[in-house]
Amino acid sequence: MYIHLGQETVIKSSDVIGIFDLESTTISKNSRDYLTKAEKNGEVLTVSYELPKSFIVCSEKKREQKVYISQISSTTLQKRAEFIDKSQMKGL
User: What is the pLDDT of residues 70-92, one digit of tens each?
Assistant: First the structure.
């Protein structure tokens, strides 16, 4: 299944490692350092140029990592992911 991150960006739910609130997680120096390193490595993709609210860490291939910056809140994205999980469970 897929999760819509905003604009025209969708990702496979199975690729998601984590969905994070940008405001609360960037208080931590480790989170800021992680995002800075990902940006320098060309791993960050900005979904929209509206006010960013969340970042999503994905592993698209075994060792290839992408970080999506989205204007959609982490709570909304997590609800979308939970909805997908519940839909998959009903199909079993």
Answer: 999 999 999 988 876 666 555 54
How far from 63 is each of 40, 41, 66, CA to CA, in Å?
A: 17, 13, 10
Single pTM value for the model = 0.86
C-alpha distances (whole Å) from 44 to each of 79, 83, 87, 89 are: 23, 26, 29, 32
**Helix, coil or strand: residue 14:** helix
Which string of DSSP letters, residue by residue, matches 24-37? HHTTSHHHHHHHHH
Q: Where are the domains of the chain?
A: 2-86
